[in-house]
Amino acid sequence: MIKQLIPTLFFLLMCTIAGAQSQRITGRITDINNQPVAAASIFVQASGNGTKSDNDGSFELQLADKDKQFTVTAIGFESYTQIRHAGNNYNITLQPALRNLNEVVMVGTRSSGRTRLNTVAPVDVFNIAKLQTLAPQNDLNQLLQYVSPSFNSNRQSSSDGSEHIDPASIRGLGPDQLLVLINGKRRHTTSLVNNQGTVGNGSVGTDLNAIPSSAIERIEVLRDGASAQYGSDAIAGVVNIVLKQNTHQLFASTTGGITSRGDGGLGQLNLNYGTGIGKQGGYINLTGEAYYRDKTTRAQNNNLIIFDQSALNNFFAYDFANDPAASRKYDDDMLKQKGLKRDDFNFQIGDAKIKNVATFFNLSLPFNSGRSEFYSFGGYSYRQGEGFGFRRLPSDPTVNVYSIYPDGYQPNTDSRIHDRSIAVGLKHKLGNWQADLSNALGDNRFDYQVDHTVNASLKAASPTSFKAGGHEFLQNTTNLDFSRRFAGVAAGLNLAFGGEFRVDDYRIRSGEEASWKNYALVINNDGTVSNPSGLAGGSQSFTGFSPENAIHKSRNNTGIYIDGELDVTQKWLISAASRLEHYSDFGTALSGKFATRYKLSPVFNVRGAVSNGFRAPSLHQQYFSYVSTDILPDNTLGQSGFFTNQSKIAKALGIPKLKQETSLNYSLGFTAQAARNFNISVDGYLTDIKNRIVLTGSFGFDPNGNPVDAIQKIINPLGARSARFFSNAVDTRTVGVDVVADYNIKSGDNSFNASLGFNYNKNKITGNLHIPDQLKGQEQIYFSPNDSVLITEGTPRVKINLSLTYGYKKFSVLLRNVYFGEVARNSFPFGEVQVHKGKVVTDLSFSYAVKPVVFTIGANNLLDVFPDKQIYGNSYFDVFKYASVQMGTLGSFYFARVTFNIPTGKK
């Protein structure tokens, strides 16, 4: 069918090129202050012709004989429709937009001119440039966390790489079920597998914080399944980041802040500059960002200090099972004898220390009288992170070298993350067709270094710093797209089709030998391997990747799609898309989507959609293997191994090979413009996912935490006491509703905006566990209760965002309350499920503008709200006071910001 369709579309293309007489018109677009509006879109619905205004607001456009009117849109302005008259010149004045819900969107549609209120699927639009001035948040994940009710992202603690790249998701689904685009082009994911029991456990996401917020004009969040439109990974939805195009403007911002506890100090510098190029509306926009965030400490009061290794053979049993108060007095006595104080030995649990520098660019070079355009965008980000592992006690000789650390130690896991991307493309008008050829290359490299640690098996010869290796993911995507509007088909047909070829490349690099090797292992006479001394090998806290973990794999994906939107009448719109994709390692899959929108009145629309999708296992999930230090089911720190499904141990246990996830998405809702300044949208949704990829529990122990000797004999020679794998273990269902409302009013020098976002989201596991027959009886190991809780209750079931903004002349104030609903968490294998009650977080900021400078002060979490304290069983012997759920564990954060917007040169 696809092969028959392509020649037909090609024939339509050739016929269109040959036809249609036209007339060239000119004009200039300005605002109410007679200032030029650059990059405004001028679009003719009848013929499909369009262009953009130059830096001075001028434009040229071809009108066909049948074109009776054209529409002008620009970010921050009301849409304007101009009736064609006898002359050839048009001077158009745009009015400032009072309703951001009417911004034209790029995502979820390939038809120009669709707005948030008339799309067939729900799309949120967030003005990042405005948020960056007023909001207390300073990175992209947190900005979205506090304005989008369906978006969730929290900073993690003591979770290896997940401390340095924050996982993010929408509607409570996995980070790898959310597709990220930049300027409509696919963004690469990270090389990191989240594997330390955080939300999104076992998934691979996109590092949004590698993109400087000052490079972004707006973010569009499509809250609907879109695999048929954009390909695999779009099961939950799509985030499209639209980069700035402004010219002759210098933006600079500096922010400083600190928490109410005197830690977590922040310093940030943002620079953005745009300038025009040529006489046909070209531009280049450049961004630089430097960011520093100090660590925070949110541990309990240092209960894990024991200095006399001979005093206690079993620290845990004494310190908390018997008498915590007596053990604390014992610790204090030991400190006093050594002339030390308790604060010298803080157990660091909180946000990691982060240093980040990033640069981005966005380039457009129109030529051929505006009929062609060369474009490019991309950037580079370098991040250093410092996270903290569990404290090693001087009384435990298996993990400590007493001569090096007589008082014990807490290891640091340091990251070096390079994120690089570049996209280049060429757009060209072929008659009434728009062709777009592009290539996007992205790479994420993550290197680990472990400091303040030892390899205990080396004893006194051990280094205290190790290069532990790392991982890297590269993705190259080539697209060829064609689109055209047919005005004569019903009330208008927009047709798009094209193809994509993508190459994924994943590798793991081994660390230096001492970072992973156990020098205490001996080979017995019968050829078996044992560890008679019991000394742990490798760098403590984060064991280096070994040569057995090192791997280099790649695959390719070819896809073709067709996407149409038909205005059956002026009131009724239908949309359909189909996509055929072939993976070199997972075969072929076909996905489709049908959506419709009907205008019951000029101010009330109903809309709905149904689609299916799929997601092939990532290369990371297929080939990631690693042995790390973790809390084991027997309530001890030990080595936990992740093994591939192709490994010998997987085959010995009967772990099946991975296959793709499949999904069905349904949505139904309405949009209404209840009054001139008030808009509301309500959308219900249901998403069924079959064969969802999750991490298994820890094989090697029974459900009661007792070692299973038969399995231990297999995995112990591999340097591990437990083994985990990826599996298609469960089916899930997600149901919910989104409500977005916006009210704006302006009267004289006064302006007021109220924005409300509401999300109710329920995830549940459906059907039976997909467990092989040979593993029957080990259901709680194959899919652990911990991971079940993370999926079903790990993100808030209810989230509400209410923002109130008031402006008077040069003064503005933002008051925002975010309700994070209750969540459940089982933090450790020996813990129990704990429900954390819902909480309200209040943000407040004040701004004063003295052109071209804006001064802002304020606070995030003004009332110092924290999640509920963890119950004892989930607190790792009373150390982890709070779990990183809901709003995280930062507490009150105060900030001051100075922002400059300086016009430069002639517009």
Helix content: under 10%
Structural class: mainly beta
The overall pLDDT, averaged over residues, is 86
Using only CA atoms, what is the Rg? 29 Å
- CATH superfamily heading of the largest domain: TonB-dependent receptor, beta-barrel domain
Low-confidence stretches: 1-20, 98-102, 302-322
Strand content: over 45%
The tally of structural domains comes to: 2
What characteristic shape results from the CA principal axes? globular
Number of DSSP helical runs: 12
| CATH fold category name of the largest domain | Maltoporin, Chain A
Question: How would you describe this structure to a colleague?
Answer:
The chain is mainly beta and about 900 residues long. It folds into two domains: about 1-95, Carboxypeptidase-like, regulatory domain (Immunoglobulin-like); about 125-300 and about 345-625 and about 655-695 and about 725-905, Beta Barrel (Maltoporin, Chain A), CATH 2.40.170.20. Helix content is about 10%, strand content about 45%. It is built from twelve helices and 43 strands. It has a 22-stranded antiparallel beta barrel. The chain has a five-stranded mixed beta sheet with strand order 8-13-14-11-12. Strand 39 (about 825) and strand 40 (about 835) form a beta hairpin. The chain is globular. The model is unreliable at about 1-20, about 100 and about 300-320 (pLDDT under 50).
